[in-house]
Amino acid sequence: MTDHFKIVIPARYDSSRFPGKPLADIHGKTMIQRVYESAVESGASEVVIATDSSLIAMAAEEFGATVCMTLAEHASGTDRLCEVVDTFEWADDTVVVNLQGDEPLMPPAIVKQVAVNLIKNDTAGCATLYTGLSHEDAGNPNIVKVVTDEKDFAMYFSRSVIPYIRDSEDAAVAELVYKRHIGIYAYKVDMLKAFRTMPPCELEQIEKLEQLRLMWHGIKIHVAQASSIPGHGVDTPEDLERVRAATAPDF
To answer: Could you say which of 58, 64, 124, 171 would form a disulfide bridge with 135 (CB–CB 3.0 to 4.6 Å)?
Structure first.
């Protein structure tokens, strides 16, 4: 069994909360370069930065990255991923990891883990990861929760508290069952092609969680505990300062 996989890093310039964030400096390198270097360390056979911005493209080419210019009007990073798959004509059985361009502290081991998990699970069309979650954080709607079955396939993702512990408020019990979803995915190319034909479902639109579209249409999502804890992602300028503070100047 081969562990070959590819990585696509979607990177938009026009973020509503933080315009230009892929080019933000983190100790002398842009954030997109930090993400790219982490992707390369994962052992992927190919890493592509997908962007609709000429500024990001030029910066990426300067540090030697392969760039795919994509349309500006994609609704999601997954749609941008589909365009890359078409452009490069990757085979249907290729495993592709979608690594967001605002995750400079995503450990390379996690990136490889999610790809290998999908490779090893023939019945899954997608794979993702989770970490533990405290009782205090479980009620935060900005933190996505997941519940899984005995074979490590997702049963549901939600912004609400799932599962609901009816008879106990014991924090120790809660931390055994709560799973915090990490937003990194591995897909098979044939599943990505099918994704484009799937209309959004009501659950996806209500929760604002794209992965629910896959489950609605019967796609199995493999979910495993991450082998290490990822660092903070960057959604806002304040997040960027946290990342800078958490990393050494020679990072």
So the answer is: 171
Residue 211: Cβ-neighbour burial (10 angstroms; 0-12, 13-18, 19+): buried
Which pLDDT belongs to residue 1? 43
What is the C-alpha separation between 23 and 47, in angstroms, rounded? 18
Contact yes or no for 150/137 (Cβ under 8 A)? no
As a whole number, the mean pLDDT across the chain is 92
Alpha carbons 70 and 82: distance in angstroms, whole number:
10
Q: At what angle do helices 31-41 and 54-62 cross, to 10 degrees?
A: 50
How are beta strands 66-69 and 95-98 bridged, if at all? unpaired
The gap between the terminal CA atoms of the chain, to the nearest Å, is: 34
Distance, in Å, from the CA atom of 6 to the CA atom of 192, rounded to the nearest integer, reads 14
126, two tokens: 């997608």
Q: Which amino acid is at 138?
A: A
Quick: pLDDT tens for 53-99.
999 999 999 999 999 999 888 777 788 899 999 999 999 999 999 99
Residue 192, Cα to own-chain centre: how many angstroms? 14
Q: Please name each of the domains of the chain with its CATH number.
A: 6-110+120-240 (3.90.550.10)
* pTM of model > 0.90: yes
Q: 170 pLDDT band (50/70/90 cuts)?
A: low
Here the tokens at position 77 are: 């990073």
Token pair recorded at residue 135: 């009782």
> pLDDT tier at 165 (50, 70, 90 boundaries)?
confident
Element housing 186 (H / E)? strand 179-188
